[in-house]
Design goal:
The complex is a heterodimer of chains A (369) and B (283).
Chain A lengths: L5 H21 L19 E4 L3 H10 L4 E4 L8 E4 L4 E6 L2 E8 L1 H19 L34 E2 L1 H10 L13 H13 L14 E2 L13 H13 L14 H8 L17 E7 L2 E5 L15 H10 L15 H18 L3 H14 L4
Chain B lengths: L1 H5 L5 H4 L4 H16 L13 H32 L16 H34 L11 E8 L2 E6 L12 E4 L1 E5 L4 E7 L4 E5 L4 E5 L5 E5 L5 E7 L11 E7 L1 H18 L16
Parallel strand pairs in B: 1-5, 4-10
Antiparallel strand pairs in B: 1-2, 2-3, 5-8, 6-7, 6-9, 9-10
The chains are: A alpha+beta (369), B alpha+beta (283).
């Protein structure tokens, strides 16, 4: 034993340990957690895009005395001036736009709550790839992509109120819960989420449009629901061609009649099933696909009342094949579509016997599967 | 000191006939709550669920009897040996050999009656029901892989082909559909922290540990909608981590399964490997 140097042995063990640790750090594991020593402090505030003049006119009514209209602002075009200094109208690259100031303290509050409540799925850096969000389809939103599915806005980006209502309501049938945090907490989180936009994109881009949820217009079919459903069925399979992605709820023959196509026209295979569609939502740099819902089967993410359906159809779903229908078809037809879809949900969803009779009937009589 | 001196032990309450009131209230409210579906467990909806009820009432009865006995044994000497006119308070430390023997005998009997009895029945239940995982090879066994996360349940059933990791796997979130009168077998694991799959009406509860696959099973014998809850505090939104268990009658279930499988194949994206998470079935 005299030949052994104990200090030497200790050094050898230490070196071995060091080597092992070096080896494991080189091992690239895509599922590894983000670094744990993340700072919860945000040191810089941010100017974020705010909605346009209409939104400020609304605010001016809601908070008398806060906003004043200055005719000389925006280079003579006129604009709203905020006495609190939170909002500002300024020119960047020749574009006049409203901006909202999110202070470093506010972003810090938002980040702390974001890390506690949101980061498990949406990732510590908001990339939509947190530990619990992995392998999830549909994927959790990445706040670096700035595309939101169910905010019901027609603009590129949702207003704070639109985001707030999505978070408070949750997305049914997904792990996105109806969050019951306070509005103050949620709005801080929202400011933080917006500040995650990469430079010159999303809320940091002067060219982005920020909008409120689409207005629920007056339903013209309140007393004539039956006719709305018939009209909706025609629009669904006719003018709007919803059956290209969603299931067609008619036989081939009925579809031919609705579309006034010549005898013998054939339509897509599996007409009574939805068709998988490309989306812009990426995971690890790869775009995923999304499934348009079968209204008699799948859960609606953003509500099942006619008003909800009207808003969802009108605004479209960003980053997917679902376009914005507001403007493309009249409000009257939008409402008819909403009534038709609501009727499908109410009549067949979670009612196995009724649904299989209905869908089975379509599949037997036509040549579609 | 003044506080202490004002407090003189009074046995008026013990002599009072009102003594029974709080005790009776406690027992009746426990019993009443157990009858209400919202507070009590309700009727079991699985074939082994009755074992839970039997064990529950056995323990409740034994503990109630023991409680009553202890209360009597405490109150009687307190009244008998208290100070009163013509009688000096007396007490005893129980140091005699006789007292020690008596204590030992009472302890052993209590252990045999209360603990050993319950233990034997509980072990029997575990062996015969909870640990008797149905054979995966049996075509009757309906297999479900459960992947829990903060704060949702992902369920994967094999679909019509009976193989996991194929396009027709039925994937659901926070909703599980199972056939009536067929054993449902689970492979359970978690992505992040420990969760616990709790099906209260089925009397089934099992932890889901990240990095391990746990097994559990039950056999629904009642059709309808039941609760899925998380029974392990798993973070802020633990209380919102719930889902719906639907038990369908066999014919309806087969139809449901065929349709769900077909829709799943339609939604399957072969290139999206990050989205595929099935594992080989563990027994």
């Amino acid at each position: 034993m005299r030949g052994i140097s104990w200090q030497g042995l200790a050094v050898a063990f230490g070196a071995l340990g060091l080597l092992t640790s070096l080896q494991t750090s080189e091992d690239e594991n895509p599922h590894a957690r983000a670094p744990r020593d993340v700072s919860l402090v945000v040191t810089e505030g941010a100017w974020l895009r705010a909605p346009g003049a209409d939104w400020f006119a609304q605010r001016a009514k809601a908070e008398p005395g806060r906003f004043t209209h200055d005719a000389t602002a925006a280079g003579g075009a006129g604009g709203w001036v905020d006495s609190h200094g939170e909002y500002s109208l300024s020119e960047i690259e020749g574009e006049w736009a409203y901006w909202q100031w999110a202070s470093a303290e506010r972003l810090t509050d938002g980040r702390q709550d974001f890390v506690q409540f949101c980061s498990s799925c949406h990732g510590l850096n908001g990339d939509g790839y947190g530990r619990s969000g992995q392998h999830l389809r549909p994927t959790p939103r990445s706040f670096q992509q700035n595309k939101f599915k169910f905010t019901k806005v027609t603009a590129d980006l949702p207003s704070d109120e639109a985001l707030l209502s999505v978070i408070k309501r949750g997305l049914a049938g997904t792990p996105m819960l109806p969050w019951d945090l306070s509005d103050v907490q949620l709005l801080d989180i929202i400011q933080y989420i917006k500040s995650l936009s990469p430079e010159e994109s999303g809320w940091r881009d002067v060219y982005s449009q920020v909008g409120d949820a689409i207005e629920v217009t007056e339903d013209p079919w309140t007393d004539t629901k039956e006719r709305a459903i018939v009209r909706g069925r025609e629009i669904y399979h006719g003018a709007a061609s919803c059956h290209l992605c969603h299931p067609g709820y008619v036989t081939n023959e009925e579809l031919r009649v609705i579309r006034k196509d010549p005898e013998g026209t054939t339509y897509r295979e599996n007409l009574t099933y939805p068709a998988l569609k490309d989306s812009e939502y990426e995971v690890l740099g790869r775009a995923t696909k999304v499934m348009p819902p079968d209204f008699t089967w799948h859960q609606m993410r953003a509500g099942t009342t006619t008003a909800d359906l009207f808003q969802t159809i009108a605004s479209g779903i960003k980053g997917t094949a679902m376009p914005q229908w507001k403007g493309a078809i009249s409000d009257e037809d939008l409402w008819a579509l909403a009534h038709y879809v609501e009727n499908l949900i109410v009549s067949y969803k979670d009612q196995p016997a009724a649904r299989s009779a209905f869908m089975g009937g379509l599949r037997v009589s036509g040549d579609n599967k | 000191m003044s506080m202490l001196s004002t407090f003189t032990p009074s046995f008026a309450l013990l002599r009072s006939r009102w003594l029974g009131c709080p005790l009776a209230l406690m027992l009746t409210s426990t019993w009443a709550l157990a009858q209400d579906k919202r507070w009590g467990p309700g009727e079991p909806a699985s074939d082994y669920g009755y074992r839970f009820g039997e064990l529950f009432w056995l323990i409740t009865t034994l503990v109630s009897v023991a409680f009553a006995l202890v209360v009597v044994l405490l109150i009687v000497p307190m009244l008998r040996d208290r100070a009163r006119p013509g009688h000096r308070a007396s007490f005893d430390h129980g140091k005699s050999l006789h007292d020690k023997r008596l204590t030992a005998v009472i302890s052993i009997i209590t252990f045999i009656v209360l603990d050993a009895w319950v233990l034997v029945i509980a072990m029997k239940d575990l062996r015969e029901a909870y640990w008797a995982i149905p054979a995966a090879k049996d075509p009757q066994t309906y297999k479900v892989e459960v992947l829990a996360q903060q704060w949702a349940w992902s369920f994967r059933a094999a679909g019509v082909d009976g193989e996991f990791g194929t396009p027709d796997d039925i994937l659901t979130t926070n909703e599980l559909v199972v056939p009536k009168d067929r054993p449902v077998s689970f492979n359970l694991t978690s992505k992040d922290v420990i969760h616990s799959l709790f099906l209260p009406e089925m009397r089934m509860k099992k932890d889901l540990n990240p990095g391990a696959i746990n097994l559990a099973w039950f056999k629904p014998v009642v059709e309808g909608e039941f609760s899925i809850l998380c029974a392990e505090l798993c973070g802020f939104a633990h209380y919102q981590m719930f889902g719906k268990l639907r038990v369908l009658e066999q014919g309806q279930f087969n139809e449901w399964e065929a349709e769900a499988s077909q829709l799943a194949s339609t939604a399957f994206d072969a290139d999206d490997t990050e989205g595929h998470w099935a594992w080989d079935w563990q027994e």
